[in-house]
Amino acid sequence: MSALLNAAPRRTGRVLPLAFLAGILIAPAHNGANGGSDEAASRDPMIPSSSQSDATTLPLAAVTIVTGEPLRARRFFQGAMNMQLARHVLDDQTALALSAHFGLALEAGTAVDVLSQPDAPGAAVVRLIEVADDLPTRRPAYDARLIGPLGFGLPVNGLETRHAIANSLGFESTAGVMTMAFPRQDGSTYDVGEYHLKAPDDVLVLGVDRGPMQPIGPLDPALDIGGIAYGSMFVADLKANGAFLTEVLQYELRRETRFESGGPNGGLPGLERGERIAFQQWFSPGATTGYLVVMAHLDHPERAEAPRVVGPARGIVSWSFEVRDLDEALARWTRFSGETEPSVTSISLPPHGRYRTAMVALPDGTKVEFMEPQSPAALP
């Protein structure tokens, strides 16, 4: 499609940052066959027309980060994002399972920090697994030219205040805070604001304020911030990635468009001004949060073949999703990939309780964890 970013910045004298991660329709764009077809969806692209009863894979449940900066990471998520910490000490079985999941050498007694926003129900959580600080990061200097997970976003009311809190704790943003006008499908516009914070381990964390529109995820009304509402990544092959999301996760493509990069000050380090980026939003049927933002470099296909970090590394290592039936999900995976079904184990990590789990991968190699609950979920 030829639709390009056409949002107008409210501030003058500044380069328009890339607002593609805000979970909004940024230009007249394709609507997926299962979403956004009714009147409400035409007014707000976050509103689905599908049903949650159709979902076999639920919204994003957890993002796992391997960190070499545990103290700084906790300061970011607890201090700047107001998330609550639950520390879980691994037993032998869980350490072995997570070692196989993430390609790490974890031992019994290793602590996994789970950070959540319990008063924003439905938001995904962050898992922090500590490793040596001399390991490389998967996205050095937040470089957006690389393939793989990029970051994630949270809903925020009062971006300037939250941005100032993050700055006071030593965390800068890539482009400051910007307010823009964005078009709906019916031709009207609405304002959205956002920032891109540089979190530890070269992970980008966005705050998004959609004003009177439905937020990108649940908010804690006392703190004016929510938990994780979406994950974002660059992929090498949109078609192959879309096939995985459709056939394995059975997600629906709600929005598809293109935008042009704003260059060095446009929010994504490493991109040149005017680069065309494909942009997609994939949702669990009926969901309004917990979605995936998928992007691809249209003008630089050679980046798909660029060297990537091999072996243990810091940064985002997996997206985790609850499934209604793990065996059926793995059967879909084997039909899609032609690979042998992965091993299944049972582990217990907050806030999901005890669950059966298996790890598969996107076509680019990004790990995807399936979780089937076996006991009620509760934070300790």
Q: How are the SSEs placed, and which strands pair?
A:
Elements: E1 8-9, E2 30-31, H1 39-43, E3 57-67, H2 70-80, E4 84-89, H3 92-102, E5 111-116, E6 125-130, E7 148-155, H4 159-168, E8 178-183, E9 189-199, E10 203-209, E11 219-220, E12 225-226, E13 230-234, H5 238-247, E14 252-262, E15 273-283, E16 291-297, E17 315-323, H6 326-337, E18 345-348, E19 354-361, E20 367-373
Walk me through the structure:
With 380 residues, the protein is α+β, with helices and mostly antiparallel strands. The chain has two domains: 216 residues, Roll (2,3-Dihydroxybiphenyl 1,2-Dioxygenase, domain 1), CATH 3.10.180.10; 141 residues, 2,3-Dihydroxybiphenyl 1,2-Dioxygenase, domain 1 (Roll), CATH 3.10.180. Helices cover 16% and strands 34% of the residues. The chain contains six helices and 20 strands. The strands form three sheets. Strands 1-8-9-10-7-13-16-15-14-2 form a ten-stranded mixed β-sheet. Strands 4-5-6-3-17-20-19-18 form an eight-stranded mixed β-sheet, sandwiched between helices. Strand 8 and strand 9 form a beta hairpin. The longest helix is centred in the C-terminal third of the chain and has 12 residues. The N terminus is likely disordered.
